[in-house]
Write a structure and sequence with these properties.
The protein is mostly beta strands. The protein is about 0% helix and about 45% strand. Strands 6, 8, 9, 11, 12 and 13 form a 6-stranded mixed sheet that branches. The chain has a 3-stranded antiparallel sheet with strand order 5-7-10, with no helix packed on it. The radius of gyration is 30 Å and the shape is rod-shaped.
Length: about 170
């Protein structure tokens, strides 16, 4: 009376399955569990950067970072958009479960900084995949320049002319 029976099924591929349990006792009385549904999903989601996302290593004079991804997954669940500062400290992480595939990090406190971002998608079965970590520089500071040669009001004759200058930029480079 009340003994438990266990069974295993091996080598079922990804897909949706209906299953039930039927039991007959020694007195030929039958009962059924009803139909249950099972979804097997062993495949990682495919996630890639998509249109509107700045290329890795880009530099811009703005205070926002727009990230757009494409996701190929039949059992979508949650997409997480992550933003890290130049020291790789997480400064923002946003979980979206409504199917949205983009996020705009806005009003960033430090515009003259390097940031890193990525996106992760987790499906309903717990499989996950992420985009690579990309770098973006937000830079509102102008570069500096100092003309060394020829000096101001110089008189030059002959050719070729030699010009030299010191150019620098703290974030984006010149």
């Amino acid at each position: 009376y009340g003994s438990a029976n266990n069974f295993s099924v091996f080598y079922m591929g990804d897909g949706n399955y209906n299953w039930s349990i039927n039991c007959t006792d020694y007195a030929s009385i039958e009962n059924s569990s009803g139909i249950w549904q099972l979804n097997i999903d062993t495949t990682q989601p495919k996630i890639n950067y998509s249109g509107g996302t700045a290329q890795n290593g880009s530099a811009f004079n703005r205070n926002s970072i727009y990230v757009n991804v494409s996701i190929n997954e039949s059992n979508q669940n949650m997409t997480t958009f992550n933003l890290y500062n130049s020291n790789m400290v997480l400064v923002g992480s946003y979980n979206l479960t409504d199917g949205t595939t983009w996020f705009n990090f806005t009003n960033l406190g430090s515009i003259n900084s390097v940031y890193y971002y990525n996106a992760v998608h987790r499906d309903m079965a717990g499989n996950s995949n992420s985009t690579p970590l990309w770098k973006i520089t937000l830079d509102s500071s102008p570069p500096t320049s100092f003309l060394l040669n020829p000096y101001n009001f110089a008189n030059i004759s002959g050719s070729p002319y030699s010009v030299s200058a010191l150019l620098s930029d703290t974030l984006s480079g010149v």
